Amino acid sequence: MWTNAWKALDAIRIGDVLRQKHNELSGILTTSVVSGLSTSEISFKNVLLEILENELPRGTIRYSSKVVHVQDAGFFKSIHLSDGTILKSKVLIGCDGMHSNVAKFLGFSKPAFLSRSAIRGFIDFKDGHGFEPKFFQFFGKGVRYGVIPCDDNSVFWFFTFSPSPQDKDIEEDPVRMKQFVLSKLGKVSENIRVVFENTNLNNMLCSPLRFRHPWELLWGNISKDNV
């Protein structure tokens, strides 16, 4: 998770609890997949949900009930959820992703495509992965990917690329997705390659990357009353 995500978790006082569940990264190691040489070095959800459930008041969390509509009801805001529930809120903070209906209520335009896609994966090594607590990053030949140890056993990885017309259906086919990633790894050590080779097909997800233009956030109205 990036800095903004930790700020949100710290605001509800579970950031420190979550940090204790994972190893602290001590640096970033960047490697070229063309040469196999290091270029620079600077010295999952289940855990998050468990901590949220343990630390927040009972009944606070609702699963599979995203915000579908925000209705202005004077001082309060009526929040319509996908399960049909309607909540009245004194304060609404939108953290509902790129397709945010809270952002739509605030007048933001739809996020723009980056012309790149990302494949994300997760693997658990029962006997430990043996990686140092570092963010291992690789780039070259039009791709960028990284391997991040979460604790002594689990590893998160990502792989970004610019899809060609032949790759447009790759996100619907996990077998092709994995073959594509393995074919693009380049010159990397065997312990890095094993992470991708041994990742279960059910633990991989591909999606196009989107972003909001920075000037929209800097000069736009990021709040309206109590939203």
From TrEMBL:
Keywords: Monooxygenase, Oxidoreductase. InterPro entries: FAD/NAD-bd_sf, MOase. GO terms for molecular function: monooxygenase activity. This is FAD/NAD(P)-binding oxidoreductase family protein.
